[in-house]
Amino acid sequence: DTGVSQNPRHKITKRGQNVTFRCDPISEHNRLYWYRQTLGQGPEFLTYFQNEAQLEKSRLLSDRFSAERPKGSFSTLEIQRTEQGDSAMYLCASSPIGSYEQYFGPGTRLTVT
Amino acid sequence: DAKTTQPNSMESNEEEPVHLPCNHSTISGTDYIHWYRQLPSQGPEYVIHGLTSNVNNRMASLAIAEDRKSSTLILHRATLRDAAVYYCILVRGGSQGNLIFGKGTKLSVKP
After folding, report:
1. Nearest CA in chain A to B40
2. Parallel, antiparallel, or unpaired: how do β-strands B70-75 and A75-79 relate?
3. Residues of chain A with C-beta less than 8 angstroms from the C-beta of B43
4. What is the mean pLDDT of residues B35-60?
């Protein structure tokens, strides 16, 4: 197992289109987090899963955003009707129960034109 | 959530020690002090964490003030690969662990 993987690494889309990103966490990591990072800023928390249950969502996660982790393994983050302000790096992280150490993936860079 | 304050940027020479400070004057008794770093074009990477006592691992050392209102991340011999943004983050014990990142300290390492 080589770590958290995210696909695609880059996505360019036109405003108004829907996009979906995938995150594969480290095997047997129960916790999965999504963050968003814009240029020059630290990552901002979006949402958190423990196994398949989505336990917390940030106020940053508008109605256009939805995240799932159907079998408690990989997760998807969908953005509907993308806006230019959605352009950012979307980061996924995972951690095992009992540890606060998070392992981050390389991110998916979204550009909305 | 308790807030941390870090300098925007620091410079170091290669192979010299680096001390990265962090102030967290409103820290609560159950807050752990975590450090992550983010190399260019990569996701953040866990460095070290502690509660009250100083901690050492293969990457760095963490020195925590006695009153816990500040801490210092110590890189014993900086290399060019240590050039990154370093984030000091408080994580409440028993929480779900989502990280609240600030802007961090951008460390430049000169050869």
Report:
1. A106
2. unpaired
3. 4, 91, 93, 104-107
4. 94
Is residue A1 over pLDDT 70?
A: no
Q: Which helix (H) or strand (E) holds B23?
A: strand B18-23
CA B73 to chain centre: 5
Q: How far is B98 from chain A (nearest CA, A)?
A: 7
Residues in chain A: 113
What's B52's DSSP letter? S
Question: Which chain B residue is nearest to residue A33, measuring alpha carbons?
Answer: B98
CB contact under 8 A, A103 and B101: no
- Cα of first residue to Cα of last residue in chain B, in angstroms, is 38
Of B43, B91, B101, the CB nearest to A107: B43
Chain B neighbors of A95, CB-CB under 8 A: 97
Chain B residues contacting A via beta carbons under 8 Å: 32, 34, 36, 42-46, 49, 85, 87, 91, 96-104
DSSP B56-85: E-SS-EEEE-TTSSEEEEEESS--GGG-EE
The SS3 call for residue B35 is strand
HEC letters along chain A: CCCCEEECCEEEECCCCCEEEEEECCCCCCEEEEEEECCCCCCEEEEEEECCEEEEECCCCCCCEEEECCCCCCEEEEECCCCHHHCEEEEEEEECCCCCCCEECCCEEEEEC
Does position B61 have pLDDT exceeding 80, yes or no? yes
Q: What is the pLDDT of residue B2?
A: 62
Give the type of residue at B107. Answer: L
